[in-house]
């Protein structure tokens, strides 16, 4: 029974995806201020600090208290780094609190870290039995088990379909609700994995039938897409001209949001003659983005780190206001 066997204790480390490439693209000014919205175990932050000058600053955020705890040693060793427990949807407020206006770069390396997946107590994985939690921020919000015990059948179906593209969404939701009505709510990862395996008829080769359900619940419990949209919505106010936005996504729902955001701002309509005469043109017309790159992990990295196979990194640069040579 693969679902009932907790895995042997794994070293709770994270192998950073696109480590050097992300920092290559991010680094616009070696004395600048940078935000790493997804500190994790600090792989990208460490690489960035290694390449920045003494006058630079890095503000790193993570909503997971364990990530913040794990980063304390790095903070003690480098006064250029500030590590803040906050969701990246609040990166603008964090900068306000620190008295920072615009920054030279924002990096988002989305999704979960390996320590989150590998620690059975976090309840993210169907590979080990644990309480069905799945919250990245364990200090707030409702767990996946709570969601499944409270939501109605239509809401559960919607989440599984919209965030997991699960064809058997209704059948799974029905089994969850039926269990609840029998006084057997799903509270553990192994119970959910078994229930899904029974409800899903057609299996995809090489994929555990629970993969889509677990992904969908994780996205929902952590409001991952709303977080991403809220973070991107602050980019045009916060990124200095010449500054870079680098986002690494691991599934198509995230990547679509990033792509549409970048392309939308790259295609900002030209100023009308009337707007050109205004001393301050409305924000979307002041300056847009230039899309610079879409990068996948190379073969060697994909071989070495399977997590990198689904990674898509997109890079855009903030353009200077029309008619101005940019100095950040
Ligand atoms: C893929 S890992 C980042 C790994 C990191 N780049 C490294 O090299 O160690 C994603 C991290 O982002 C955090 N995270 C995900 N969504 C977040 C959000 N909305 N706000 C803040 N942190 C978030 C997770 O808790 C996790 O630690």
Structure report:
- α2 (43-51) links the parallel β1 and β2 (57-62).
- This protein has 328 residues and is α/β, with parallel strands linked by helices.
- It folds into two domains: 19-114 and 225-318, Vaccinia Virus protein VP39 (Rossmann fold), CATH 3.40.50; 140-221, Putative methyltransferase TM0872, insert domain (DNA polymerase, domain 1).
- The model is unreliable at 1-11 (pLDDT under 50).
- Helices cover 42% and strands 15% of the residues.
- S-adenosylmethionine binds next to α2 and β2.
How are the elements arranged and paired?
Elements lengths: L18 H8 L6 E4 L6 H9 L5 E6 L2 H6 L1 H6 L3 E5 L5 H7 L5 E7 L4 H5 L25 H7 L2 H12 L4 H13 L7 H11 L11 H11 L2 H9 L2 H4 E11 L2 H15 L6 H5 L5 H4 L2 E8 L2 H6 L7 E7 L10
Parallel strand pairs: 1-2, 1-4, 2-3, 4-5
Antiparallel strand pairs: 5-7, 6-7
Helix pairs in contact: 1-2, 8-9, 8-11, 9-10, 12-14
The chain binds S-adenosylmethionine.
CATH architecture descriptor of the largest domain: 3-Layer(aba) Sandwich
Describe the biggest sheet?
A: 7 strands, mixed
How many helical elements?
A: 17
CATH superfamily placement of the largest domain: Vaccinia Virus protein VP39
Number of domains: 2
State the CATH class of the largest domain: Alpha Beta
């Amino acid at each position: 029974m693969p679902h009932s066997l907790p895995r042997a204790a794994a070293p709770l480390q994270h192998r950073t995806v696109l480590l050097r490439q992300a920092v290559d693209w991010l680094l616009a000014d070696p004395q600048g201020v940078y935000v790493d919205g997804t500190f994790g175990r600090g792989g990208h932050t460490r690489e960035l600090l290694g390449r920045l000058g003494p006058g630079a600053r890095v503000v790193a955020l993570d909503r997971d208290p364990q990530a913040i705890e794990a980063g304390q040693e790095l903070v003690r060793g480098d006064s250029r780094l500030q590590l803040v427990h906050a969701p990246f949807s609040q990166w603008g407020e964090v900068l306000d609190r620190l008295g920072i206006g615009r920054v030279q770069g924002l990096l988002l390396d989305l999704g979960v870290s390996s320590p989150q997946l590998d620690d059975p107590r976090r309840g993210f994985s169907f590979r080990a039995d644990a309480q069905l939690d799945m919250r990245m921020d364990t200090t707030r919000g409702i767990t996946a088990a709570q969601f499944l015990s409270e939501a109605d059948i239509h809401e559960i179906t919607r989440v599984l379909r919209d965030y997991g593209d699960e064809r058997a969404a209704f059948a799974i939701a029905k089994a969850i609700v039926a269990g609840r009505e029998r006084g057997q709510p799903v509270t553990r990862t192994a119970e959910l994995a078994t229930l899904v395996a029974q409800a899903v008829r057609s299996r995809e080769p090489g994929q555990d039938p629970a993969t889509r359900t677990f992904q969908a619940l994780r996205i929902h419990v952590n409001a991952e897409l709303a977080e991403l949209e809220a973070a991107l919505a602050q980019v045009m106010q916060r990124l200095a001209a010449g500054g870079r936005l680098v986002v690494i996504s691991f599934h198509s729902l995230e990547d679509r949001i990033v792509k549409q955001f970048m392309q939308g701002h790259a295609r900002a309509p030209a100023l009308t003659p009337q707007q050109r005469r205004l001393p301050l043109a409305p924000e979307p017309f002041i300056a847009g983005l230039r899309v610079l790159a879409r990068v996948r992990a190379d073969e060697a990295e994909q071989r070495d780190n399977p997590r990198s196979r689904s990674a898509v990194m997109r890079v855009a640069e903030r353009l200077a206001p029309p008619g101005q040579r940019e100095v950040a």
